[in-house]
Each structure stands twice: as structure tokens, then as C-alpha cells.
Amino acid sequence: MKDDVLWQMAFAFFFTAIISVGGISTMIPEIHRQIVETRGWMTNEQFATAFAISQVAPGPNILMMTMMGWRIAGWAGLIVATLATVIPTSIIALVAGRAEERIEHARWYAMTKRALPPLVVGLICASALITAQAAITDWLGVVLAAGVAVFMATTRSNPLVPLSVAVVIGIVAARYGYF
Amino acid sequence: MSEDHTPPKVSHFELFTGFLMVGLFGFGGIAAAIYHVVVERKKWLTARDYAAVLGLGQVLPGANLVNITAVIGDRFGGLWGAVLSLLGLILAPVLILVALTTLYDQFATNPDVIAGTKAAAAGAAGLIFGTGYKLGKTILDNRWSLVFATLSFVSIGLLRWPLLGTLAVLAPIAVAFSFWRGRHEG
After folding, report:
1. Which of A24, A99, B68, B115 can pair with A61 through a Cys bridge, CB separation 3.0 to 4.6 Å?
2. Which residue of A has its CA nearest to B159?
3. What is the distance between the alpha carbons of residues A21 and A32, in angstroms, rounded to a whole number?
């Protein structure tokens, strides 16, 4: 039974990574669809918490996937989720990297480079919406999310700065019964 | 400054420790850390070479910066260079994440921790909104790019359609469209 989950997980994470363009934040909608909506391996709240913790730790945002795997199936899940996300796409990158000179001068490459970014912007905004729906349960959550968003949009600061401020505000607000 | 830059010799060990540094410096994502280590500190790549690798990583599937790590590792150390670079990048952060989560679980019933986590989760959503806005401001410079961004947002974010179907339809249209525009604009 457990092996079954691991295989399904391996496929879900592999599938999500291999069809995503534009990086980790565009993987959120699909991995959320797979592990929360379709398979019910996590609740919305667990998803939001796992995502939040992975954002606070140092390292690549790929840790979000590692974290989900760990929450679903322990150490085996951690390894399976990480490898399934990293290995297949890295192999593609490695092959493409060796052909970089040829690819760079190909016409389709220039066109693809121009065509994909708008789609990626849409995907990132969709990720933001899905994460917000999973994480926000009251008005203070809305205020904190909006505050962090505005801060990120208008400064070049490290994301950990507004995130830490939000955490402090959340704790203080909760102590006074507002959260 | 001239862009003459003889590619340095980089050992497997240096690749591993270099990307270990990237992982550990990379609080809040590694985009800045990877540039700092690879271009500024170690001078493995020039800024221009890095931009080319980054551009490639962005059109490939998967995590951009992980892709870039594999490409850089391979360029200097072949297949094993790529493997060791990737290991260096994720090993320490994964262990820190596990430690952090274990600590979190110990105190998961503490009201301060509950409130702090809720706030961090809400803030993390805001983080993605902010990133999307910033990116959108530089990328969505004409009506058509706005149309494509809106279509992908509506399909994934509002209708919750699967990513595969959405991209299978929108990506070829977007590429074909950019061909067509390229031809009309000369």
C-alpha cells in the first residue's frame, strides 16, 4: 500500500515538474491540484503550512516539493519527491546546455523566449491566488498578504524581511485576540 | 571591460562547495545567491554567459535555478560535476528544512507558533503576488502579452484547469503568434 503511494507520488511530482515552465512558483497550481484536490494527500491548511515553512528555510524553492513529499510519506516521500522533481528536468537541462550554442541561434528559441514569459506571469498570479485561498482565513491574513505583496512589488528587499514582519504582527495580533 | 574570459578550471570539489554556499546563502530563494557565487565571487562565468544560461533555464521545464545548476556543473565537470553541484545545492537546505519542521512539530500546538505560521502562510501568498506583479510590470509591455497572461491566469487560477492542457493549447498559440508578429514587424 505504501509503495503504491510512493509510485503515485513519484509520478505526480515528475509530471508536475516536467510540464512546468517558469520555475517553482508556476508548479504550485498543478501540485496543489494533484495532492490536495485530486488525491487528498494533504488538506488545504497542511499545504499552506508546508509551503510557508519551506519559504522560511534557506535554499532553492524546490524545497517546497521536498517538504510536500515529506509530509505525505515521511523520509521515503522526501527522497522520492525531491528526485522526481529534480532529476528528469535536470537531464533535459544538461542535454540542452550542451547544445546551447546551437539552440541560442535557432529562430524558434528566440520566439519561444518571447512567447513564454507572459504565460508565466499568468501562472505566477494563479499560484498566488491558490496559495492565498489555502492560507488566508480572516481579514488579518488579507492585510498581511497585501502588505507583503506591496512591499515585494515596490522594494528590492529579501523576501524574508516582509515575511518576518508579518510573523511578528501575526503573533502580537493573536495575543490580543485579533488572529 | 573586455569580455575575454578564459573559462577557469573548476574541480568537482569546488563545484560542490560553491553550490553548497549558494544553498546556504539563499534565504528567500537562490536567484541572488547563485549569481553572487557563480559570477561575482568565484568568477566561473561572466555576467553575459550567466545571462545566456539563465535564459536557457527559463524556457526549459522544471525549476529554473536547479536547471541552471545542472548546466553549470556539467559545463565545468561533466555529468559528475552536475550531480555534485545539485547535491551541494540541495543537501544542506533539505537537512535544515527537516530540522526546522521537526522543531515546528514540537511546538505546533503553541498559540504563538500557530499564529506565526498562519501569518507566514498568508505572507508567503503575498510574496508570490508581489513577484507576479514585478515580473508582469517588465514583461507585459503590450496588449497581446497582457491577453496571454490573462488567459493562463483564468485557466489555471480561476477555472482550475490542469496545467498540461492549458500549456498544450496556449504555448503553441503564443509561439506561433510571436512568429507572426516577428514577421510583420520585420
Report:
1. A24
2. A126
3. 16
Query: pLDDT tens digits for A115-147?
Result: 999 999 999 999 999 999 999 999 999 999 999
pLDDT, one tens digit per residue, over B43-97 is 999 998 998 998 898 889 999 999 999 999 999 999 999 999 999 999 999 999 9
Which residues of chain A make contact with B106, given a CB cutoff of 8 A?
A: none
Contact indicator for B130, A156 with CB cutoff of 8 Å: no
Contact B111/A at CB under 8 A: yes
Q: Round to whole Å and give the CA distance between A52 and A142.
A: 15
> Which residues are bridge partners to A21 per DSSP?
B61
For residue A161, CA distances in Å to A155, B28, B65, B141 come to 11, 9, 22, 29
* Residue in the structure block whose three cell numbers are 516582509: A162
Q: How many CA atoms lie within 13 A of A65 on its CB side?
A: 34
Q: Where are the domains of chain B?
A: 1-106
Contact between A70 and A80 under an 8 Å Cβ cutoff? The reply is no
Model-level pTM? 0.89
Residue A140 backbone class (left: φ over 0; alpha: ψ -120 to 50; beta: rest): alpha
Q: Minimal CA–CA distance to B135: which of A155, A127, A120?
A: A120
Three-state DSSP at A136 gives coil
Which B positions 114-153 lie with beta carbon below 8 A of chain A? 114-136, 139-140, 144-146, 148-153
A93 to B71: CB separation less than 8 angstroms, yes or no = yes
